[in-house]
């Protein structure tokens, strides 16, 4: 084990629901067009992520030689009654408007409370094996935001992070900070690209 730990957080590739701007939480939707995905790094041997199909499929394309370690704690938030619907379909719903006004204190009907979701994602992250130097995670946009709030070098609000499907967040920790669950020392945002061959 080295003195530095690097974590790559990557959002799954788009689903049909994402492209239609529908709320997509625990629905196990497939990718919209997986044939367009390229291999990112064939040297990665372990990938960690959500147990949902869209993350598994993305990881299989990005990291074709890796074992996938699925963890339900890395699922997107449960949107409950809003699942699968668009803003236009919900905009006259009083519960939806209350949730938009204060999503931290107002969970969706039959959905997950914000703090429960964040705690679940952070718990999953804290249970990753400690003995690796590099980690690749394929998860959901909300999960990435939750982990950045908890582990980025400086604390920023949840919604301050833009998490598109084609960008990765690279967190660098000292080994001591990693083992203690402390914040990383640096955060880079980069496009998801194929690793150059030597």
UniProtKB/TrEMBL annotation:
Protein's GO biological process: negative regulation of glycolytic process; regulation of pentose-phosphate shunt
SMART domains linked to this entry: PGAM
Keyword annotations for this protein, in alphabetical order, are: Hydrolase
Pfam families linked to this entry: His_Phos_1
A GO CC annotation given for this chain: cytosol
CDD domains hit by this protein: HP_PGM_like
InterPro entries reported in the protein's UniProt record: His_Pase_superF_clade-1, His_PPase_superfam, Phosphoglycerate_Mutase
Q: Which domain of life is it from?
A: Bacteria
Annotated GO MF terms? fructose-2,6-bisphosphate 2-phosphatase activity
Q: Does the keyword Hydrolase apply?
A: yes
Which protein is depicted? Histidine phosphatase family protein
Phylogenetic classification of the source organism: Bacteria, Bacillati, Bacillota, Bacilli, Bacillales
